[in-house]
Design brief:
There is one protein chain. This protein has 171 residues and is mostly helical. Helix content is 77%, strand content 0%. The chain is built from eight helices and no strands. Helix 1 packs antiparallel against helix 2 and helix 1 packs across helix 4. The relative contact order is 0.10.
């Protein structure tokens, strides 16, 4: 059975998630979170160092999914030689990895919504752009590789790949 402190911490996290979802990081207020949790602001500070620390705790599951996605992608890249990257097995492995990541994102929907929609004013407000830039870099490398293999003849520009990455991430 969870201790009283653990139960209080979970209540604080639940109320804080609602507060950040309703108001965004900038307008969220620790006093309101404390009042809705029926604890003092001091109790919040016993569990979390700051408003940023509380927010970070709520979005950490999203970062964990992002790290897993990078690992899955790296494993898929290593599993097949470049000449086999369009084989049925390579495509299926890639699709399986995407579905695994999408499932994890769905399970952590609140963390992703907080990170991608409610982080303005926090240290994480540029996270979406960092993710899009990372995907754009990957798309550029993939396009270059397809051209090197003679599979593709057209190399989209960075802006086109950036738009594709943004559309993928935002969907």
């Amino acid at each position: 059975m969870p201790s009283s402190a653990e139960l209080t911490r979970e209540r604080i996290l639940a109320c804080a998630a609602r507060e950040f979802l309703d108001k965004g990081f900038t307008k969220a207020n620790l006093r309101d979170i404390a009042r809705n949790t029926e604890v003092t602001t001091g109790a919040i500070y016993r569990h979390f160092q700051s408003k940023e620390g509380l927010f970070q705790q709520l979005i950490q599951p999203a970062f964990d999914v992002i790290a897993t996605a990078r690992t899955v992608a790296a494993e898929a890249d290593e599993a097949y030689p470049a000449t086999d990257m369009l084989s049925a097995a390579a495509i299926q492995r890639s699709l399986d990895g995407v579905m695994q990541v999408l499932g994890a994102m769905h399970e952590q929907a609140v963390a992703f919504k907080l990170l991608l929609c409610c982080a303005d004013g926090s240290p994480y407000e540029d996270t979406m752009e960092h993710i899009v830039d990372s995907y754009t870099d990957s798309y550029e490398a993939y396009a270059d590789h397809l051209i090197e293999l003679g599979i593709a003849t057209y190399r989209p520009g960075r802006m086109e790949l950036h738009m594709l990455a943004r559309a993928f991430i935002e969907s």
